[in-house]
Amino acid sequence: MSMKRKLKIIYFLTNIIIVLTTIILCFYYKEPKINLFGDKLVTIELNTEYKEPGYKATYLTKDITHLIEIEQNIDTKKVGIYIVTYKLNYKNKDYVKTRTVKVIDSTSPVINLLGSGTIEICPNQNYNEQGFNAFDEYDGDITSKVETQVENDSVQYYVEDSSNNKTLQERKIIRKDADNPTISLKGYQNLTMYVNDTYFEAGYEAIDNCDGDITNNVEINGSIDTTKSGKYTLTYTIKDSSGNIASTTRTINILEEPNFDQKTIYLTFDDGPSNTTEKILDILKEENVKATFFVINADIKYDKLIKRAHDEGHTIGLHSYSHKYKSIYKSEEAYFNDLNLISKKVEKITGEKSTIIRFPGGSSNTISKISRGLMTKLSIKTKEKGYIYFDWNIASSDTTRISSNKIIKNVTKQLGIYQTNVVLMHDFKNNNKTVNALRDIIQYGKENGYKFDKITEMTPQIKHKIKN
Ligand code: ZN
After folding, report:
1. Are residues 226 and 306 in the same domain?
2. Residues 217, 270: one domain?
3. Ligand 1 centroid distance, CA of 319 (Å)
4. Domain co-membership, 317 together with 448
């Protein structure tokens, strides 16, 4: 072998050794690979589950994923940054990769307004906070962090949670006064007095929901001439600062001085109308005598007799709608409910509001004691409402089982004691004894110089002594 050939072989072998050594060294120092799937930074919402996107470990072509150990302490209930560590120990060497997980809170807090979302207040009034609270899914009750700002037509509520999520709420303010003031009169709403009496203004009061007591702004319109009889009306008007108006009226009825010179008989008939009423009206017509009927709510077919009595110039007085003492006298309210019913009925039939009333059983009745002091109250309240009540001073006792002759005697023997004679009789159904006594009573009166008249507002008021 030549020297040249020997050198060639040595060179070739040396190269092979270098290459083999390199390959061996390469294999020997090759590191295993850890591959993470998905993003290196994962963001999840609070309270949602963290799902591992996956990973793989290889050494050369060998799958060694099972050797990976994962370490993590993600608390999905807590906002924060967490590290997931993927550890691989291979051939006594540690290999590590990490992934970052951010748990975030992106839910805005909620502001709850107490009271209405739109609030109406007086134009001159300061807004009074109606209350609120604020809750955040993560921070809990953050009411104390709410900032409020009151503007002329709204209130702004602002809050931010610890993750800077913001919430703005608004309450609307409407400034207006939609309510009318109230005005009330002191003293009688309806007043009856005689010519040349002095009128005293009893006063009034006006209150407004926004302005308070505005009595001083009340305007009175109308005038009274106390030297002339007639019906006068005073109008009391009040306007609040928003232009809302309220008004009320007082009626003053000024009467001529009554003439007490001649002795007068006032025939009165209670508890009608009925078939008796018709016969009584016929007699009164023939005798040209005017009388007074204190009516109740009777059979509808007799309503035309109320109309006839009214048209023939008699007075229609109000007695009662139900005529049931026990329910009428239960209370002041019960009494006036009943009175209003008969009042409306009579007004509908005659076209006139009657102001003459007679209490069932008279003002001296004791049935009303079921409500203590009721008659005392009613005697005042009826007057305030513009009514005049009349009792009687001559009882015919025609509700008892007596003859016509006895009725005549009962009446005529009492006449002459008084200047004003108010005779109580009844025109309930089939009361023929009264019908039969009537003409004789009228005859007696005429023959003895009496005048017959109907009761009016000018008739001297005959009143019993109140016992309750
Ligand atoms: Zn009666």
Report:
1. no
2. no
3. 7
4. yes
Beta strands in 72-128 (DSSP E): 80-90, 93-104, 110-113, 118-121
Query: Do residues 316 and 424 share a domain?
Result: yes
* C-alpha 462 – ligand 1 centre gap (Å): 17
User: Residue 50: inside a domain, yes or no?
Assistant: yes
Q: How does pLDDT run along the chain (468 residues), one tens digit per residue?
A: 678 888 899 999 999 999 888 888 766 667 899 999 999 999 999 999 999 999 999 998 899 999 999 999 999 999 999 999 999 999 899 999 999 999 999 999 999 999 999 999 999 889 999 999 999 999 999 999 999 999 999 999 999 999 999 999 999 999 999 899 999 998 878 887 888 888 989 899 999 999 999 999 999 999 999 999 999 999 999 999 999 999 999 999 888 876 666 799 999 999 999 999 999 999 999 999 999 999 999 999 999 999 999 999 999 999 999 999 999 999 999 999 999 999 999 999 999 999 999 999 999 999 999 999 999 999 999 988 889 999 999 999 999 999 999 999 999 999 877 789 999 999 999 999 999 999 999 999 988 889 999 999 889 899 999 999
Residue 410 Cα to ligand 1 midpoint, Å, equals 19
Q: How many domains does the chain have?
A: 4
Structure tokens that stand for 151 in this block:
């503007």
This prediction has a pTM of: 0.57
CB half-sphere exposure, 373, CA atoms < 13 A: 3
Alpha carbon 212 to its chain's center: 20
The single-letter DSSP state of residue 6 is H
Phi, then psi, of 356 in degrees rounded to 5 = -95, 125
Domain range enclosing 144: 110-175
What is the spatial distance between Cα 57 and Cα 68, in angstroms, rounded to a whole number?
Answer: 7
- What is the whole-number distance in angstroms between the Cα of residue 104 and the centre of ligand 1? 88
Domain-terminating residue out of 134, 151, 175:
175
